[in-house]
Amino acid sequence: MKNLSSKPHYEILDGLRGVAALMVLGFHVLEAYAIGKYGDDSCYYQILNHAYLAVDFFFVLSGFVIGYAYDDRWDKMSFGNFFRRRVIRLHPMVVFGTVLGVILFYFGASVMFPLVSAVPWWKVLAYALLGVLMIPASPGMDIRGWQEMYTLDAPTWSLAFEYIANIFYGLFVRRFSKVALTIFVALAACATLHLTLTQGDVIGGWTLNAHHLYVGFTRLLYPFFAGLLLFRLGKTVRTGQPFLISTLLLVAVLVVPRIGDKSTVWMNGLYEAAVILLVFPLIVAIGAGGTVKSRFTSRLCKFLGDMSYPIYLVNYPLCYIHTGWISDTNYSMSQAGWVPVAVFSATLVISWLALKFFDIPVRRWLSGKSRKK
Q1: Which residues of 220-238 are buried (b: 16+ CB within 10 A; e: fewer)?
Q2: What letter would DSSP give residue 153?
Q3: In angstroms, rounded to a whole number, what is the distance separating the alpha carbons of residues 296 and 228?
Q4: Could you give the CA distance from residue 29 to residue 274 in angstroms, rounded to a whole number?
Q5: Cα-flanking dihedrals φ and ψ of residue 9, to 5°?
Q6: Which tens digit of pLDDT belongs to each residue from 205-228?
Q7: Residues 12, 93: Cα–Cα separation, whole Å
Q8: Is the N or C terminus of the chain more exposed, i.e. has fewer CB atoms within 10 Å?
Q9: How many other CB atoms sit within 10 Å of the CB of residue 77?
Q10: How confident is the model at residue 3, as a pLDDT?
Q11: How many of the other CB atoms lie within 10 Å of CB of 295?
Q12: Which long-range contacts (CB under 8 A, 24 or more apart) does 72-77 make?
């Protein structure tokens, strides 16, 4: 840790957040080649197959960091002040990702997204307003074809659940004793086990229907509040080369191919349950228990941490276009050549520009306005 402000800063956790975001980006770019070839069975053939679990890892990180940042502030801070801070931190990039989704929407017209070309521009703008206000769209309002609740920038679904977790924490869970929080987390772990062993994975959460809401809340409750509990218990792991070890462990569990087949979905579910319930908290404990010793590693962790959130909310509007193009051409990854690399690279460039020229300036401005109130 390193003194950056009134509190030490967990640099390794920042770096891990960036590594996870890069894994999500790689997964979204490469999944186009499985979707186009295998259709509804694509989950069995994904490259970087379990990288979607990075969302669950983000929730563990968020719970830990929220506890660290706010648990000791409630004697001087109201819920309104807390939630305002969270909106300032999270919402500018939600707006940016939604606007980018508007700009690129019609470029995604394809066999994969047959509804796009017939959507009038005013309806796209109406959906942009819903996205900016974090109002989810029902499946019957779909304008793309994937029934996403935030169809202009799909990853916004997890930010909606992040907001819900922050509200739960600020209104109720912050008052929980360690015993009460432990019981709550144990019950959430049971829900995770039930989901993974019956469904075979935790895929879902982005559609406004009963099943996806069940999946979304299950994915949220254990990781987020397990991260909070981990912070409150103060359980960290000290090891040599903590950033390297935690990064290798994170990447390793995310690249494992899907386990089993349709007749043995519980096998893959058991793997995902083990990763979410045990491995992710362990990785956070290693990251929180370690220190960065070299200037290069410190700068790398800061860069990865700064870029993580923009990468997460910028990548999908570009991936819609890429996935649509693959569905039209039916290219394999070797036939696509430089295109996936270009999509990956373009996402990084736009993310950096969004960070430097939108996210940071807007958050500074909003923070200044908030302090004046």
Answers
A1: bbbbbbbbbbbbbeeebbe
A2: S
A3: 29
A4: 26
A5: -120, 135
A6: 999 999 999 999 999 999 999 999
A7: 23
A8: C
A9: 14
A10: 41
A11: 8
A12: 74/174
Contact between 76 and 367 under an 8 Å Cβ cutoff? The reply is no
pLDDT (0 to 100) of residue 6: 58
User: Are the beta carbons of 133 and 291 closer than 8 angstroms?
Assistant: no
Structure tokens at 251: 């990447």
Yes or no: say if 213 and 191 are a contact pair by the CB < 8 Å rule: no
What residue numbers bound the domain in which 258 lies?
Answer: 2-372
The values of phi and psi at residue 3, to 5°, are -75, 110
Residue type, 150: Y
State whether residue 187 is helix, strand or coil.
Answer: helix
Helix (H) or strand (E) holding 325: helix 295-329
One DSSP character per residue, 198-266 reads: HHSS-----SSSHHHHHHHHHHHHHHHHHHHHHHHHT-----SSHHHHHHHHHHHHHHPPPPS-GGGHH
In the chain, % of residues over pLDDT 70: 97
What is the mean predicted confidence (pLDDT) over 321-329?
A: 95
Q: Which residue has the tokens 């793997």?
A: 271
Summary mean pLDDT of the chain? 95
Strand partners, 350: none
Residue type, 188: A
Instruction: For 234-264, write each residue's pLDDT tens digit.
Output: 989 999 999 999 999 999 999 999 999 999 9
Strand, helix or coil for residue 8: strand
Instruction: Report how far apart the first and last C-alpha atoms of the chain are (Å, whole number).
Output: 32
Q: Which two tokens stand for residue 254?
A: 């995310």
Q: Are 203 and 250 in contact (CB under 8 A)?
A: no
∠34-41-344 over CA atoms, to 5°?
A: 25
Give how far Cα 293 sits from Cα of 241, 296, 301, Å.
Answer: 9, 9, 12
Identify whether the C-beta of residue 287 lies closer than 8 Å to the C-beta of residue 304.
no
Into how many domains does the chain fold?
1
Q: Where are the alpha helices (DSSP H) in 71-152?
A: 79-104, 121-132
